[in-house]
Amino acid sequence: MTSNSIDSLLHESRRFAPSDAFSAASEASRDLYTSAKEDRIEFWADKAREYVHWHKPFTETLDWSTPPFAKWFADGELNVAYNCLDRHVLAGNGDRTAIHWEGEPGDSRSITYAELTAEVKRAANAMAALGVGQGDVVAIYMPLVPEAVIAMLATVRLGAAHSVVFGGFSAESLRSRIDDASAKLVVTADGGWRKGKVFPLKAAVDAALANGESSVTNVLVVKRGDNDVEWTEGRDLWWHDQIEAAEPEHEAQGFPAENPLFVLYTSGTTGKPKGILHTSGGYLTQAAFTHKNVFDLKPETDVYWCTADVGWITGHTYVTYGPLANGATQVLYEGTPDTPNQGRWWEIIQKFGVSIFYTAPTAIRSFMKAGRQIPEQYDLSSIRVLGSVGEPINPEAWIWYRDVIGAGNTPIVDTWWQTETGAIMVSALPGLTTLKPGSAQVPIPGIKIDILGEDGTRVDPPNGGLLVVSEPWPAMLRGIWGDPERFKETYWSKFPNLDAPKYFAGDGAHVDEDGDIWLLGRVDDVMNISGHRLSTTEIESALVSNHIVAEAAVVGAADEATGQAVVAFVILKSNQEHAQTAAEASALLRLHVAKEIGAIARPREIFIVSELPKTRSGKIMRRLLQDVAEGREIGDTTTLADTTVMQIISDKLK
Ligand code: 6R9
């Protein structure tokens, strides 16, 4: 073993080939791989023509003359909102439902493409009247209501860019994001519904704008929570008043392919949040192409549901832009999965006949914890494709997802990508790929991925290394807002000596003998145990493969004997919580890990906990657990979905 690679120890041999019927009806064909291999650039040019309406056709595909700054389709012009709206109406699909919206309290609203187009036109006129135009940034701080999507589309219809901030983030986070991008307008709501209560949003906007100078001239407020709000005359305006007063007609104008579409802030582990910049033509091409092929979308008949909030990149690409560009019918749900009961999501799937369902491993594991008897009460037979995103999915959670939600025969696509990549990069295609639980599998056609050692040489199976994207791709980030140096340094400086710049994503991965990619987690989380570099993912998967475990997180904690030692935090399944003592459970699980992957990976300690610290998009924040494991004061918890979790964990372990 050298420190050049990450050890890979977990073996997973289950395989699931697509059924003949599924393959025969599949949207994607092998030709996609063949043509992308023949000429990658021409492939993307084709896809851009096929998936996107151009106001002015492009003649150049990729300009990579000043890496890492790429331009795709640069002399073309498009209007992203027109692509998501007007063109479907003009093609005769105005009566198709675009959004089945379900509010947490049970109110619901279905909106056709014609209606959505009409609303976005009015919203665009209302925003234009407030001075919004090309070059401006609109901050959107909303619950998951249709107006969040409408505000995004109205913004980009005008050639302006949005910056969506999670409705759960604090006034302070909102302020820093508003300031960093010099947002001109904020769109918010009085409040939204979450866990059976209204949470205020407007109040946080007021606080964010309270001190000193701000670039914001107006705040548009959607009425949703009916909670009391303070009002700053001259600045604050009710959304419904403005929409009502706005002109109904709005002609979409073309903007350059490289016109900024949005900024989305990622927190990262250190330093101030990075404003990831995406532009229009390349982003929309890859969003629409992947949405169609990875999910095998049939827009006439499918009902698609991605459970992500629009505050996450997944909500940008696979709630707003991909599905709407493809003319899909989708579900949008405002609340949490367990309000008012633990079957809420399954009830929604049954109600709307959802056929494509895309969610995160964290959600799947929390359903595993509660038990299969809950989803089994619902009719989920409409489902024909399942997707996963956000973290590696443990093989056992994958199997549970397929068996319990997918009736034992539904393909699962495990999609690897990032805020920075803009769209899916690695995934199975459900009609073509023989699935392996726990592997994200293959680069999508037109994407070039390599797994390298620290020295930049390719790592051979079965060892792991660093996952890099070796060629520019259409939906790639174009920079960090206002900070080109940080962009180069953060993503492109890992392998300065290679002849072409390579994008380093921060994740570890290994490739198996078939060429399938297995993600190993963030390389910052890799542990060094007696000189062996072990990934968190495999040990977590080994823990989850025991029938008593619902969820697990492991960290490396300083250890005198071995440098670092594995420390695990484990949530038991609900029906196991009282079946044994914590000491018995941890003894059993230490043995289990040793048996599954070897003694080297056996945790020094296992803590049985009831919660794990997670971000708003459901990622486990291991550095906070490492603070606990090493007995340090707990670091910055501001990006946690639930800031009380660390208190609960440390109290329990005292
Ligand atoms: C889309 C999204 C990106 C990071 C990424 C990786 C992890 C996402 C994954 C996955 C393994 C998958 N990640 N999908 N790891 N398998 N299918 O999640 O974007 O919030 O920017 O996070 O998430 O570590 O680097 P973002």
UniProtKB/TrEMBL annotation:
Domain AMP-dependent synthetase/ligase: 90-481
One function term, GO molecular function aspect: ligase activity
Protein species of origin: Rhodoglobus aureus
EC number: 6.2.1.1
Positions bound to Mg(2+): V544, V549
Domain of life (superkingdom): Bacteria
Binding site for CoA: R194, K195, G196, K197, T314, S530
Protein name: Acetyl-coenzyme A synthetase
Alphabetized CDD domains for the sequence: ACS
InterPro entries registered for this protein in UniProt: Ac_CoA_lig, ACAS_N, AMP-bd_C, AMP-bd_C_sf, AMP-binding_CS, AMP-dep_synth/lig_dom, ANL_N_sf
Positions of modified residues (N6-acetyllysine): K619
